[in-house]
Model the fold of this input.
Amino acid sequence: MQDYRDFTVDSISFGGLKEYVDDLFHNKSVKFVPIIDAGIAWRPGYSTFDQGAAMNIYLTMPGSSQPFEGRVWPNEAVFPDFNHPNTSIWWENQLTTFQENLAWFDGIWLDMNEVANFCNGACQVRDKASMSVKDAIFYSPTGRSLDYKTIPVDITHYNGVMQLDSHSYYGTQ
Done:
């Protein structure tokens, strides 16, 4: 990726990748599966981010229209809400453009297929719930906070399902 931006190729470190992948496919019958991260770099001017923002597909905290901002490899990152009907359109557009730029790929490896977050829950004060649902839970497996190294359990997906109830399901979408 170029600067941790999904659906891009670093032209300096991976110059000639399109030709290399084409050679693998046509001459060696080798499969090529690039890695994509669930965290989309929060970079206005980066088309993948901008298109997702225009389609309103990123996870938000309840009562907010601002995308939830987490921290992963690109630092500031947003996460697609795969329950939003626009997300599959956006995802398909990103994969189509990516494939056109690479010539071919046989699949996608969704790295950290569950939403990873280098913060424990919300990174920004604006994203912290005033009273979190996790505070009302009497038992937590492992004894750790349920938002340890992931997004807050208070995030509500487009279809009304809370992250608390859909954790570990994200990567299958």
Remarks:
- The chain has a mean pLDDT of 89.
- The radius of gyration is 18 Å.
